[in-house]
Amino acid sequence: MRTPDFSRWFLLSWLLLVIGFGLCIAFNPGKQIASESIAIPLETDRAIFGKLYTPRGVLTPYPVMVLGHGVNNSKATTAPLAMELARHGIAALTFDFGGFGESYPLSTAEKSIESLETSTLEDARSVLAWIRDRPERLDPTRIGIGGHSMGGTTALQLAQIDPQLRATVVLSMSGTATSTAPRNLFFGVGVYDQMNSPRDIRIAMQAATASPDITCLDWDICGDFAAGTARQLAISATADHVFAPYDGRLTAAVIRWVRQSFAIETQDVSLVLPGWILGWELAFAGGLGVGIWGIGQLDRRVAGSRWRRLWRYGNPAFGAMVTIALWGYFDTKSSEIAANLLLFSYVLLLASNYALRDRKIFLKALRLLGLYALLFEFAMLLPTWICGLGELWQQPIYLVGLPQLIGQWLLWSGYWVAPFIKAAFFPVHTLELQLSGLFVLLVLWEFLRPGATFGAIEWVAVLGVRWLRRPFQVSVGRVSSQQIAGLSILLGLLAIVLHQRATDGLLELFASQGGLVVRQLSLLLVLPLVTIVGCARSRWFRRWEMAAIDDKTFDLT
Q1: β-pairing verdict for 33-41 and 138-148
Q2: pTM, entire model
Q3: How far apart are CA 470 and CA 239, in angstroms?
Q4: CA distance 21 to 25
Q5: Burial of 488 (0-12, 13-18, 19+ CB in 10 A)
Q6: ∠ CA(345), CA(28), CA(424), 5° rounding?
Q7: CA 270 to CA 258: how far, in whole Å?
Q8: If we measure between CA atoms, which residue out of 17, 83, 25 comes closest to residue 53?
Q9: pLDDT (tens digit per residue) in 202-245
Q10: Cβ 193 vs Cβ 244: under 8 Å
């Protein structure tokens, strides 16, 4: 086994780690806000998990916003907006709807569109009741509600039947409203929204104004906040559907809107979350690099010693994982931190075991991973850009925001993916830490067969690329094992996608709207796949690929 020398890797990793922690310290929102995890019991022995963010230095009771997430997401989606609201004097409560995140589970039948419309409304009502039971901390006369996508629909419905709610924020979703209900309505949408176009939301906003001649479009405000008739439509040139809750322009607009709705003096809005998230991402990458370097150095020290046999079955990352897991179990207040560190340690375990096989192969695999990650980002951004063509044609000035859109995609992609991984590994991780059986099995497998996880991923990836690059031909002869394996991989991926769409109710929605299913599948599934296949088969991409690996260590032909 080749012992890796990570000198250059070590220096670069330390640089990323230092820069990352520097950004985390400079943009740390914890200096201005406090947070606490909560569990709201329901009558059916179920519970809703949430997180309350409160501003420091503001007298209680706090004005408060309730924020709901979209389909197949969790409270992590609205956490950045909640933290920014708290920084600007507004308490914010994010929570997981039933069937998502850490809250009570739902069966597949209970996740139909009709069932979710009922369950999400009841969940939001329970959250409001929890807030109103604490008038000493949360001001019952200054409560607002908002949400993204499905959460926006719930917010709009509940605000129309609860006139005590003083602010309504709907992101990336259309809906029906009148000139008086709900109170102080804010619609926010991105130019590149893939599900609800700005045109559809303009129509909804026009119906929600006092006069057909008043449309409150393109950031104009009409109506009166004191009377509850204020209306605004904000169209951001830097947002799409997925990342609208993280968009800086929409976040700043929501903060100003909520402060005006609660009769709080407005002020300049400064955002720290983008810098804070970037800092943690750089620190995560730098920490992995430093950890792999340290493990490589330790591997060199024990090579040829009597500890070599024991060392080959694991490395210090495994011990760190056990320590952190015990810490999380015995100190429930640190369970969320423990979950994050446990996830970091698991990735370190996988990467270091794979790197110990051969440093040269590891670095080439890392470069290939970066190349294909950029290809995937491009394939997903292409339909996003196409969705905005209608708005771009009418107002070409929106093109100025396209570079920022790309930057936000790169910045927030890791943050958006992390909750899905944590949900699979740690079903509960805020009030206490619970490990899933899947996580335990994966750790044991990697412990018994070091490097097997990334090795299997490498094998599948190489096999898939080879299969994609085979000449297109139709034959009735004998089917090779490689063709069977490639087809099995594609069918497996298709089954996962179809199952996910069935559980989130989108298949039912598409089935009821034939034109929508064709458009969405073509734009959001077929086009990215065609883009990835076309690029992977092109000569120019293969030249980049060969430049990344620099030899035939990976034979992708």
Answers
A1: unpaired
A2: 0.87
A3: 38
A4: 6
A5: exposed
A6: 35
A7: 15
A8: 83
A9: 888 888 886 666 667 777 888 889 999 999 999 999 999 989 99
A10: yes
